[in-house]
């Protein structure tokens, strides 16, 4: 514990909580607190509050009193025992309350009750069962007239941990390491400081984010937050886990959360359309939205996946052309594999650029539907290896961990083909390796991902991000920690 304590302070932590309930042997409190390198909170959490302490309650209270007698800066006292441990010396009292089932309606009453227990700081941690719980918690913190830390636990609650400072939270809790979360949904100190730049979030910080369910796999937070940091923009990009049936309530909460723009992904890409007041023509054509902007009273929807996919293909074929000039995709024979959301955006773009499209997918009826909607031919999945000039994989085949799979037999690849794999993890899929070894031109899923993020960042902020830096951030993020 002492080694980790020193390590955190070296990384910049200003306040460290020592969870004495994680020490199974007898605790030498004096030794832990002697020569401590920064302000310290001593906590001995019971099992019923999510801790590890199983000894007697009397012994636990003695440990807390001993920490106070040793002059620790803060001691954490649960609201039901706070009155048993009187104020002494300079030690400040964090009065805490945990609820692992839900976020109760009466947060303000709870806060008032806890404040009256001679609290220097009130800490409330409750389980979020729906995104609206986060807003209620954050607004309780904002409206409180004393130092307060309030956060929601669980995957849905992660945004409340990140956005605390925007609503005036005194501090937040993070773990020593991302694999050692002490409470559900907790982020590591490294994630909180390096990815989310928690220390630079303030009352005016513009909030952006991604809505999805699940959301933990999204790499967009790393990319957008790194750009905010590098360009000196006062913004934060937050992963919001929004279950499908809570989208309406979340959209109602957007302005109170300070949200100016959202990336939208599965399962909300179609459903979010009904909340828009203005749509980009591509959104109408594709029937899916992946970017939403909130400007005054307007809610604007865009599809940057479509634009990114087309820009990447045109670049590979000689360059993106201005409107009115025939695209290098015109009259090209293109085979699209897959018939999901990405295939839909690609088919729409290819139709508008006059390509001759063939589509094949596992479920023939879905492929047929896209061929009927956007023009083109539909063939059986087994018949996909016919000659083509351009191949676009819009299936997840070859994606991590199935990196030894390819959606297209390499014996049918020709050196004059352009092969575009939308899968971006790994960057070099088996399909792209095969294509490269056959001398084909290639476009990777990373190219497309970066392009759509660039367009999205520009829509969000009106500023040009650095493509090279986004690429570098994405490469580091792929395969790194998830939250
Ligand atoms: P989706 O809506 O789930 O569609 C996937 C399509 O692939 C479906 O038509 C599915 O067939 C088909 N498919 C899945 N497994 C298959 C298999 N084993 N054999 C044949 N067909 C199969 O997914 P999506 O949102 O379109 O995303 C597709 C891929 O695009 C993702 O896996 C991701 O790697 C990539 N992507 C890339 C970016 C980027 O920026 N680079 C962005 C988003 C997505 P059924 O209809 O039978 O289910």
Can you describe what's shown?
- With 483 residues, this protein is an alpha/beta fold.
- The chain has helices at residues 2-10, 29-33, 57-69, 107-115, 132-143, 158-163, 189-195, 220-231, 247-257, 281-286, 304-316, 341-352, 364-374, 430-437, 445-461, 467-477, and strands at 15-19, 39-43, 74-78, 92-99, 121-127, 148-153, 206-212, 235-241, 259-264, 278-279, 291-295, 298-302, 333-337, 356-360, 377-378, 390-393, 418-421, 441-443.
- Strands 1-2-3-4-5-6 form a six-stranded parallel sheet. The protein has a six-stranded mixed sheet with strand order 8-7-9-11-12-10. A six-stranded parallel sheet has the order 15-14-13-16-17-18, sandwiched between helices.
- Strand 5 (121-127), helix 5 and strand 6 (148-153) form a beta-alpha-beta unit.
- Helix 8 crosses helix 16, helix 11 crosses helix 15 and helix 15 packs across helix 16.
- The longest helix has 17 residues, at 445-461.
- The protein is elongated and about 80 Å long.
- It starts with a helix and ends in a 6-residue tail after the last helix.
- The mean pLDDT is 95.
- Bound molecules: NADP nicotinamide-adenine-dinucleotide phosphate.
- NADP nicotinamide-adenine-dinucleotide phosphate is lined by residues 305, 338-343, 361-363, 366, 381, 394-397, 399, 422-424, 445, 448-449, 452.
Descriptive labels:
483 residues; alpha/beta; six-stranded mixed beta sheet; 34% helix; elongated; binds NADP nicotinamide-adenine-dinucleotide phosphate
């Amino acid at each position: 514990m002492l080694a980790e304590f020193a390590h955190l302070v070296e990384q910049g932590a200003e306040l460290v909580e020592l969870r004495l309930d994680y020490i199974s042997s007898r605790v030498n409190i004096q030794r832990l607190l002697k020569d401590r390198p920064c302000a310290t909170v001593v906590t001995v959490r019971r099992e019923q509050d999510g801790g590890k302490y199983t000894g007697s309650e009397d012994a636990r209270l003695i440990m807390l009193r001993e920490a106070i007698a040793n002059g620790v800066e803060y001691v954490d006292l649960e609201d039901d025992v706070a009155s048993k441990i009187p104020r002494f010396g300079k030690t400040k009292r964090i009065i805490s309350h945990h609820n692992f089932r839900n976020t109760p309606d009466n947060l303000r009453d709870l806060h008032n009750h806890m404040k009256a227990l001679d609290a220097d700081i009130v800490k409330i941690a409750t389980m979020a069962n729906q995104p609206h719980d986060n807003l209620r918690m954050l607004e309780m913190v904002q409206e409180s007239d004393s130092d307060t830390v309030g956060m929601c636990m669980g995957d849905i609650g992660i945004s409340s941990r990140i956005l605390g400072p925007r609503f005036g939270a005194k501090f937040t809790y993070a773990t020593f390491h991302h694999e050692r979360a002490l409470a559900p949904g907790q982020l590591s100190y490294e994630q909180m400081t390096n990815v989310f730049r928690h220390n630079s979030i303030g009352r005016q910080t513009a909030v952006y984010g991604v809505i999805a369910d699940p959301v933990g796999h999204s790499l967009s937070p790393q990319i957008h937050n790194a750009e905010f940091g590098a360009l000196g923009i006062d913004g934060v990009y937050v992963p919001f886990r929004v279950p499908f049936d809570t989208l309406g309530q979340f959209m109602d909460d957007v302005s109170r959360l300070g949200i100016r723009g959202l990336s939208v992904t599965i399962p909300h890409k179609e459903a979010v359309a009904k909340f828009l007041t203005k749509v980009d023509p591509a959104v109408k054509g594709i029937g899916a939205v992946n970017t939403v902007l909130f400007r005054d009273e307007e809610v604007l929807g865009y599809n940057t996946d479509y634009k990114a996919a087309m820009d990447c293909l045109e670049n590979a074929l000689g360059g993106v052309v201005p409107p009115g000039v025939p695209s290098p995709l015109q009259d090209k024979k293109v085979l699209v594999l897959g018939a999901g959301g990405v295939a839909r955006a690609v088919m729409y773009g290819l139709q508008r650029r006059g390509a001759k499209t063939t589509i094949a997918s596992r479920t023939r009826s879905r492929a047929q539907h896209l061929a009927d909607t956007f023009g083109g031919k539909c063939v059986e999945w087994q018949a996909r290896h016919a000659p083509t000039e351009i191949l676009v994989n819009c299936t997840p085949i070859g994606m991590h961990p199935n990196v030894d799979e390819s959606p297209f037999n390499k014996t049918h690849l020709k050196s004059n083909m352009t092969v575009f794999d939308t899968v971006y993890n790994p960057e070099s899929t088996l399909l792209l390796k095969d294509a490269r070894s056959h001398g084909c031109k290639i476009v990777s899923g990373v190219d497309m991902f970066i392009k759509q993020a660039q367009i999205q960042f520009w829509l969000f902020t009106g500023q040009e991000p650095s493509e090279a830096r986004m690429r570098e951030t994405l490469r580091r993020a792929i395969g790194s920690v998830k939250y």
